[in-house]
Automatic annotation (TrEMBL):
Organism lineage string: Eukaryota, Viridiplantae, Streptophyta, Embryophyta, Bryophyta
UniProt domain Ubiquitin-like modifier-activating enzyme Atg7 N-terminal: residue ranges: 24-335
GO biological process per UniProt: autophagosome assembly; autophagy of mitochondrion; cellular response to nitrogen starvation; piecemeal microautophagy of the nucleus; protein modification by small protein conjugation; protein transport
Name of the protein described by the UniProt record: Ubiquitin-like modifier-activating enzyme ATG7
Keyword hit for Cytoplasm: yes
GO cellular component, one term: phagophore assembly site
Origin species: Ceratodon purpureus
Family per similarity comment: Belongs to the ATG7 family.
Subcellular location: Cytoplasm; Preautophagosomal structure
Amino acid sequence: MGITSPAGEDRHGGGEPAEPMPFKFVAWGGSADVSFWHRLADFKLDTQKLTEEPVNISGFFAPCNQPHAPSYLQLMMESLPPDPGVNDGPIEVPYNRNRLPVPGTLHNTNTVETYNALDKPALLRSAADKIWDDIKSGRAEEDCSLLSRFLVVSYADLKKWTFTYRFAFPGLRMSPQATAASCQPACDFFTKDEAAGVLAACTEWRALPSGASLTSFLLNITPDAKVKAQSLKEWHDAQHEGGKVILAFYDPSNLPANPGWPLRNLLALASVRWGVTRLQVLCYRENRSGLLDLEHSPVLDIILPETPEWKEPVGWELTARGGKGSKFVDLGQSMDPVKLAESAADLNLKLMRWRLLPSLDLPRMASTKCLLLGAGTLGCQVARTLMAWGVRHITLLDYGRVALSNPLRQSLFTHEDSLNNGKVKAEAAAENLKRIFPGVNATGVQMSIPMPGHPVSSNEEAGVLNDIQRMKELVDEHDVVFLLTDTRESRWLPTLLCADANKVAINAALGFDTYLVMRHGASPLLDSDSTSDEAKSRLGCYFCNDVVAPLDSTANRTLDQQCTVTRPGLAPIAAALAVELAVALLHHPLGVLAPADQGTSLTDNTEHPLGIMPHQVRGFIAHYGQLVVTGQAFDKCTACSSTVVNEFRERGSDFVLEVLNRPNYLEDLTGLTELLAATDEGGDLVWDDELEDTDL
């Protein structure tokens, strides 16, 4: 029995030939819905990863229901296992009479070279052996869908969204071949009464939600033309009842005298399990109403060899031209460019998780909201690096406009952004982030940050109070706050707000050839477990090393002091370290309470997959050095001490306004004034570590 495509079939039907003649099966074809490839991409990235182990899948088909086109086996989204780790049995799918499931195996490779090197004859033999075992054991009579096992080999290039694949439908070959004594349309084969009974029995059987067992069945016709449908396992019982028993199968073929491919293995079952040499087969096809089409469903009278020999199986799907080869799908050309960009961005991170970082929490990164205070050299670099880590919610805050000198150092701006007095920095940065990656939710906020040492006049007071409230709302709405502004005093209010709200705060500051990247410690007013070891050893903030309050650092500046003059390579280094520190902290089980690590050697081990968790990183570009430093919180800190945070909680914006207008207020409040006076008088200072820990 050879395999031919529908276009090359010999047509014969009606009447009985002079002698039995070989007949040909119509080769089965497979197709894959777009939803299957999208699901396969997710399955590969999230579940299968680097493994090339075979995967149990399901294909779906229905009987041919139009004379001009055959029915194909289809792969759909539901063809793949629904949950990670589900790969040890058939896939359970809801019953649908037009989508009958048959089991298959997917061999998806990691490279096109592996795909091309697959031993396809061996894979086909292995699948055919399973069918043969199912026939001999009787499992195929219990579940006749096992006779239609199929294979899919594929290579998914998820960078380009292209898929190379090929179907195989293993068919058992016996020698000598089966022959057909006759082939007639069912309307001619059955008497009028039999036809009515067959139609009723088939309709009843077709409506049963029995899943895979529906694909073939027996029609038991009694001498008085009563017809009942039975399962294959009832063959011998049906023979003893004395009627006419016809094997029926859902036929995907549309040709009048050529049955579909599933019949091949059904004949093997009949030969091996039932020992028959003569068999009548109804090729069940439907009309558009979903009922048996008696006119277009042939009935074959088949003669089987008494002692067949079994040869190498056949079944690899041929190309449209009848040759060997693979199919190719390019979804990249038809996908929404935004969705394509999102998939490509996720791909980089998922590949990282495959090999090096299984604990990478991509959903958490995607949901983390980051507030960047400053959209200059540091802010631009931090924003771009955050996107590469999978952060999708970024808010940039800056008061300035893009200057002509900015685009060279600030990677989110172009020359056009600086023309006509320049675009608002924060808004232009957010817009350009979306141009780089449309999937990011970027927002620009133009506002100034109220700063100590910058007094507020009475006519400015309402606007400043509004800025204080807006700044508090922004800090509360975000998970991580990056302090990336040009001046020291502009970091004071955000530091206070982060300490009050117990937010992750990452600070990056630049000198000419030095940088500081640090994380602030937790709030000094943790409501729960405030006596824990983590709370007692609270890490310091950017202001904890100061013994004076932050003042106006912009007054009386020369041109070089008005600009941030640093070596051009410094900002990208500091920005990258700031983002890496934030990502590591987000993955640490203690979060903002994570203790500081000191290890700096390449041989140091850490239990955390992203490495050590430092408090401060200080870099010196002049001699390419870097130090990991730890600094504990200062109980007289003007920004994060419990005294300052408590005062803010009690007085709110009025407290901040007093700080802005009274240069020495913070020093008086925290005790720094007294401390400095004692120092000036030459008094001895005794640092009581236990007292300091208690105050913390």
